[in-house]
Amino acid sequence: MKRIIVTAILLLSAVLSAQAAPHHSRKAAKPRSSSSVVTYNRDSSDPSVGWHSQGAVRVCTNDCDNPEIPGSGFTCKNVQVFGITMRECDNSN
After folding, report:
1. Contacts of 67 by beta carbon, 8 Å cutoff, 6+ apart
2. DSSP sequence for 29-40
3. Number of domains the chain is built from
4. Helix (H, G, I), strand (E, B) or coil at 45
5. pLDDT(41) > 60
6. Which of 21, 44, 54, 72 has the most C-beta neighbours closer than 10 Å?
């Protein structure tokens, strides 16, 4: 019985402290500039990271699964999903 009471008190204090936390005033959302959209279409200047053209072949060195590395061709932008800012990357070239 004591465990249940202690658990209930802990949960109640966590809920009350979360409600008592200061809330930041919310301002109207400003329109995002185009600077939040980036297309990684240039080859990497660093030969140890990113995509490069070697002869007629496209090769990647280090972090090849990352769409935000140089030369990947992906266009990435900030999006809001359920109030959380996320990055969305698309390669529709």
Report:
1. 40, 74, 76, 89, 91
2. PPPPPGGGEEE-
3. 1
4. coil
5. yes
6. 72
Instruction: For residues 49 and 91, give the distance between their C-alpha atoms in angstroms, rounded to a whole number.
Output: 19
- Cα separation, 12 vs 81, whole angstroms: 30
Element of type H or E holding 23? none
SS3 21: coil
pTM for this prediction: 0.53
Mean model confidence pLDDT for the chain: 78
User: In this structure, is residue 35 part of a structural domain?
Assistant: no
Tell me whether residue 84 is in a domain.
yes
Q: What is the DSSP letter of 73?
A: -
Kindly provide the residue ranges of all beta strands, DSSP E only, lying in the chain, ordered along the sequence: 37-39, 50-54, 57-61, 75-81, 84-90
Instruction: Kindly report, residue by residue over 58-77, the tens digit of the pLDDT.
Output: 899 888 899 999 999 999 99
Q: How far is residue 93's CA from residue 71's CA, in Å, rounded to a whole number?
A: 13
**Residue 51 in domain:** yes
